Amino acid sequence: MKLRQVEARNFRNITQLDYHPGSGLNILLGDNAQGKTNILESIYVLSTGSSFRTGQDKNMIQYEKEAFILRGRYNYNDRDIESILSYSLKEGKRFAVNSKKTTFNHSDRLRVVLFTPDDLYLIKGSPGKRRQFLDFVLGQIKNEYDYNLSNYVKILKKRNLLLKREQSNTRSFKIIEDIFIENAARVILARINLITILDESSSSIYKEISNKGQLKTRYALSFPIDSGKINLDILKKALKKQIQEKTDQEIKRRSSLVGPHLDDMHIYQDGKLARYFASQGQQRNIAVALKLAELYTFKKISGFYPVFLLDEVLSELDAQKRQLLLDHLQEAEFQSFLTSVHLNDVEYSQAAISVVENGEIH
Amino acid sequence: MKLRQVEARNFRNITQLDYHPGSGLNILLGDNAQGKTNILESIYVLSTGSSFRTGQDKNMIQYEKEAFILRGRYNYNDRDIESILSYSLKEGKRFAVNSKKTTFNHSDRLRVVLFTPDDLYLIKGSPGKRRQFLDFVLGQIKNEYDYNLSNYVKILKKRNLLLKREQSNTRSFKIIEDIFIENAARVILARINLITILDESSSSIYKEISNKGQLKTRYALSFPIDSGKINLDILKKALKKQIQEKTDQEIKRRSSLVGPHLDDMHIYQDGKLARYFASQGQQRNIAVALKLAELYTFKKISGFYPVFLLDEVLSELDAQKRQLLLDHLQEAEFQSFLTSVHLNDVEYSQAAISVVENGEIH
Question: CA quadruple B232, B235, B241, B247: dihedral positive or negative?
């Protein structure tokens, strides 16, 4: 997928934008608060329908205006596609692909992978952040996964409610056990398969963009498994056994202590847990490697690359790491957009540079 | 307070460090993962007894070693003080000020204010982050505040428990109401007074380090007040009224819907909420202004400056903002330590520069 044109009107500090990016690495250069991230945000919103910066669409409308409109033209599977999103205070949101009104599930919609400084929390945040990442990637790729996950979440809620109400001896508690285990095992298995692919990509990318350093990513189950092999049956048996052993404790704590809602993804750098032992710059580099791996995984499964958006990724990296990352993006097959306040010490002759000033591109 | 010497042994990637900083701005310069943040961490741990990067002390011990030791020599109220912290796997933690074993409440201990990239969450994180910040600053300054706050937290738990158990008609629910209101009002009043001081400092600092831009900080109560004036009695009356109005809803939701646990601090840049409208770089600048204001507030109330530690604050700021911040730190009366991967485009002739490489200072 390659963006050929981005137009925006009355979006954040952008009054009118007509941007024709290059097909490789695009760099948006400018001082703070000039609108670099607003351009990334416009691309992201065209893809997903909502922002990564605000939950309220009205916050994206330019000050004292009543509506914004975004238009993207991109190439997808050798076809030229246009999508338009408009949002007004009066009429709300409208989205169209090739002039036909549609939803953000449309198969021809723009696809992006986004990296922001907040993605550091993938490394140092709580396990919930990492589960969210896995669930998001899987949800983008497989509709079946979202189905199993939402089933699991519903049953988990029901189960916790019964535990809270001290009704773990009831018939309904027993009845949901099998469904609970079935969905839990499917969620876990999908995550483990994803991590196998992610680990392969991210460890080779990390070697490249960190120059030295070994990255390993492993799924961390919250319960023991006796077997060296993992499949659906083995997971189900292990879950069942664990539930039997923990039921007393679950009744006491009034909460489900078994299942994928307690699992984690362990990220090791040179054999040590990155969340405790990697430096700020290394953690940022690891987060980028995981996001790049997300991009390659998407390509492997869906057959095409999303557009890669990178917000302020160069800061905090030392000169060598900045260059290695830029080299990777300049030589990649996919299209990327990267914001930065300066380009000291780096070679960027293959990139398309745009200077952003006061909501305009120069 | 000025640090004259920092020694560290077997701490993170530092085998042996003997660092004699300058009394103004000190810059720790180096590539990623060389140990810049480890030096800040050693100073922070000497001050507070624990790390901002890990909950487990053993993670700070150098790989395959059994213990670390930190020593600081600093000037405080014209006296020279030495504090030593050692931690070993076998014997745990020991802390001494001027060769006497003591605790981290000792009045002569080192004091620091820390800024890390995570402090961006002060701006864009949940209200809880901002309440935590206010509570931390107040706790450092006034012992009485911690007392009121911990009383409030205990009573809030008790109250929520009674609401959960549908016992809001009991005698004990009525009995705790007055204590609940009393402590709630004291916590809120202390926070409002703090914000008045913080707002004054931070808005003038922000004007200086952002060049343009107006910063306003206001306490956001979760309940209405009829009066323009605020004092303890007015707060108590307003809380009482609000509790009466909300009790039905509280019973339904089984949770306390009134009190300082629901308040927030609103941060406005040029009249707009910074969490939604400020750019990444601006948010970082605002967070630094609030941290500097914390330092000046500390001085105003305690009579002396803590040491200011700034981790990776320059990245994401544009050239002008980097220079304005460095100027402020170079001209300040307090001592500061700042890490950075490079010093392009900035003038730093009044700073003491140390290059950090592989856990050593050059």
Answer: negative
Pick among A39, A211, A268, A279 to test the B interface (most B CBs inside 10 A): A279
Residue A60 gets which letter from DSSP? G
Q: Which residues of B327-354 are buried (b: 16+ CB within 10 A; e: fewer)?
A: bbbbebebbbbbbbbbeeebebeebeeb
Print pLDDT tens along chain B (362 aa).
Answer: 999 999 999 999 999 999 999 999 999 999 999 999 999 999 999 999 999 988 899 999 999 999 999 999 999 999 999 999 999 999 999 999 999 999 988 989 999 999 998 899 999 999 999 999 999 899 877 778 989 999 999 999 999 999 988 888 888 898 899 999 999 999 999 999 999 999 999 999 999 999 888 999 999 999 999 888 899 999 999 999 999 999 899 998 889 999 999 999 999 999 999 998 999 899 999 999 999 999 999 998 889 999 999 999 998 899 999 999 999 999 999 999 999 998 888 999 999 999 999 999 99
Given a contact cutoff of 8 angstroms between Cβ atoms, the answer to whether A341 and A37 are in contact is: no
Nearest CA in chain A to B58: A276
Domains in chain B (CATH in brackets) are 2-111+304-361 (3.40.50.300), 123-275 (1.20.1050.90)
Cα diameter, chain A: 69
**Two structure tokens written together for A48:** 């997903």
DSSP state of B156: H
How many helices (H) and strands (E) chain B has is answered by: 9, 15
Q: Outline where DSSP puts E strands in chain A.
A: 2-11, 14-19, 25-29, 67-76, 79-88, 92-97, 100-101, 112-115, 215-220, 264-269, 272-273, 307-310, 336-340, 352-357, 360-361
What does DSSP say about strands B100-101 and B272-273: parallel, antiparallel, or unpaired?
A: unpaired
Q: Which residues of B fall below an 8 Å CB-CB distance to A?
A: 30-33, 36-37, 53-54, 56, 59, 116-117, 120, 276-282, 285, 311-312, 315-321, 341-342, 344-345
- Count of other CB atoms within 10 angstroms of residue A268: 18
A13, A31, A32, A314: which to substitute to probe chain B, counting the most B Cβ within 10 Å?
A32
Structure tokens at B324: 């304005």
CB atoms within 10 A of CB B263: 20
Query: Which of B75, B146, B83 minimizes the C-alpha distance to B109?
Result: B83
Residues in B touching A278 (Cβ below 8 Å)? 33
Contacts of residue B125 in chain A, CB cutoff 8 Å? none
Structural tokens at position A83: 């999508």
- Cβ–Cβ gap A32/B321 under 8 Å: yes
Q: Which residues of A touch B344 (CB under 8 A)?
A: 342, 344-345
Would you list the DSSP string of A101-146? E--TT-TTS--EEEE-GGGGHHHHS-HHHHHHHHHHHHHHH-HHHH
Q: How far apart are CA B53 and CA B50, in angstroms?
A: 9
